[in-house]
């Protein structure tokens, strides 16, 4: 029993010696003109913290918040404004599969949950509903180590994903797809 305990303790010390904690995240803002229908503005904040197990693998968790505001033109839908606030939790594993100097390419494989609250005001009347989503995804990205302490990161779209969305008493939707070029995100991490 003592040998097993000592072996486990040595393994934990070895993993900890190679491990590195990092924190950072992504900030985003998009504004889109909806082909004469109106405008959509989205602000996203996504802090995350991770733990480097070795040169190839990290584990991390991201917590996100986004606020979306859509305003439709008066001649199309009267005086209409839609708001959506989303909170998300996304633990994931990162695999770094290519390295060249300070650059590296990776894929993040994660499981996520998101809760969205929708509200709308149409000609003085209010509408409010909640939507939930669970899903899994594999998202590619690239990173550049500016120094031993700072790393810049970019993800390509939503990657390969499966999700299940539901709104109580309204719908249940299963989605599967691959979206690599529907958006690029940028972020930075600080390595402790």
Structural overview:
- The protein is built from two helices and ten strands, in the order αβββαβββββββ.
- The protein has helices at 2-18, 74-77, and strands at 20-33, 38-52, 57-72, 80-100, 103-122, 125-145, 150-156, 159-167, 171-179, 184-191.
- It is 11% helix and 73% strand.
- It starts with a helix and ends with a strand.
- The protein has 192 residues and is mainly beta.
- Strands 1-2-3-4-5-6-7-10 form an eight-stranded antiparallel β-barrel.
Strand content: over 45%
> What is the string of helix and strand elements?
HEEEHEEEEEEE
Which sequence of strands runs across the widest sheet?
1-2-3-4-5-6-7-10
Q: Shape, please?
A: elongated
Structural class: mainly beta
Number of helices: 2
Write the layout of secondary structure elements.
Blueprint: H1 2-18, E1 20-33, E2 38-52, E3 57-72, H2 74-77, E4 80-100, E5 103-122, E6 125-145, E7 150-156, E8 159-167, E9 171-179, E10 184-191
Antiparallel strand pairs: 1-2, 1-10, 2-3, 3-4, 4-5, 5-6, 6-7, 6-8, 7-10, 8-9
